[in-house]
Amino acid sequence: MSAATKQIRQILKGHRCLDIIGRTFVKSGANMSSEIEKKFALPRRFAGSEKSVWVEYIQLASEYNPLNLGQGFPDFPPPKYATDALAKVATGENYMIHQYTRGFGHPRLVAALAKLYSQLIGREINPQTEIVTTLGAYEALYSTITGHVDDGDEVIIIEPFFDCYEPMVKYAGGVPRFIPLRLKSEVKGRLPSSGDYVLDPNELESMFNTKTKIIILNTPNNPLGKVFTEKELVHIADLCKKWNVLCISDEVYEWLVFKPNKHIRIATLPGMWERTLTIGSAGKTFSLTGWKLGWVYGPANLMVNIQMIHQNSVYTGVTPIQEAAAIGFETELPRLGTDECYFISMPKELEKKRDYTVKFLSDVGMVPIVPEGGYFIIADWSPLDSAQVAYLSVAVIMTVNNSNFDKSDELQAEILDDINKPRSNKRKKHVKTIKS
Ligand SMILES: Cc1ncc(COP(=O)(O)O)c(C=O)c1O
């Protein structure tokens, strides 16, 4: 055998070896992966919640690079005292501020929150037992729902709703029961307002039964912007009392209410403190959603369940963020209710932007539902193209942020241009994805 033949055989042998190893590997890999897939599939209780509107929209935005009006967060600076506080906290001499803090809420923050909400709801709140701070209002919702929903408990959810309510209820073994806000009568000669959408009182009553454990209220509502009136809240409260039902009140937009509407905390209605857990968010309060700091307040006996979920899932929140937020509240507390207070000036600013956005949406041919509060506008864009019926959720403050406000004509021209562009394939695909 020549040296060359030997070499070729060696190579072939090598190849065969590789081939065999390769095939064996692939074979066992295939078995292995299907076994892995079977055993490690998403647990059944999470089925159906794989898709998230936020994940999908952010992906679409990065793919098509449109003017992104799809997610509600401010792109103007938060109040300077808040960012200054964070900088000072981060670089200050107290290095212990970078260590774990009290699990149920950083002492300085729960003290400030207790002071604030004691004034707002007209009863003394105990900072140790009646407040828990969380990783955003998201975690507040999660700990509150998980801590109270048992297998088979019915939870009433008012549509349209913040998307995580439904999966959270299901994860906890609960049964979501939906009731829509309906347009109370045909609107003529003006734009519809979020106040035109109401719960049918009889339909609401029919939702309650002995299995009903919780109703989730969101006022101002995301995405409609509805601010529930006192009459509407009294009706919900009466049914909660009649059927011994807990109210989880998501009030993250409590300060984002446009005149003449008024935010009413359902916990303040007679007999409701003892059956209400109210959720708030520093992100929405101070326009700094990236801080992901939230809280729940309510009666101590109901807070115990929340404390348990929180201590066994996240244990404690972010210390420097909580310290800085506490300084933020301490800054606002003495000027609460005055024009200098951020909680008064911010909604005034956003109201102008709401009006501007409503106008340009109407100008381009959509039919916006004028929101009474919150970050969002729902607009019916079907008049733009009768073949496409869809709703577009627009974040007011993203559209007309402070820096863009001066350039509003330019911005409007850009939007008009985009809307009037002939539909490219890409755009068609985009529309299709949103519809599906
Ligand atoms: C109605 C509602 N609840 C809760 C949250 C979550 O707030 P956070 O960012 O504090 O987790 C949001 C955020 O958009 C919201 O719109």
What does this entry show, briefly?
This protein has 436 residues and is an alpha/beta fold. The chain is 46% helix and 13% strand.
Classification by helices and strands: alpha/beta
- State the helicity in percent bands: 40-55%
C-alpha end-to-end distance:
67 Å
Instruction: Characterize the main sheet.
Output: 7 strands, mixed
Ligands: pyridoxal-5'-phosphate
**Number of helical regions:** 16
SSE string = HHHHEHEHEEEHEHEEHEHHHEEEHHHH
The shape, in one word, is globular
CATH class identity of the largest domain = Alpha Beta
Domain Aminotransferase class I/classII large: 66-399
Cofactor: pyridoxal 5'-phosphate
GO molecular function: cysteine-S-conjugate beta-lyase activity; kynurenine-oxoglutarate transaminase activity; pyridoxal phosphate binding
Keywords: Aminotransferase, Lyase, Pyridoxal phosphate, Transferase
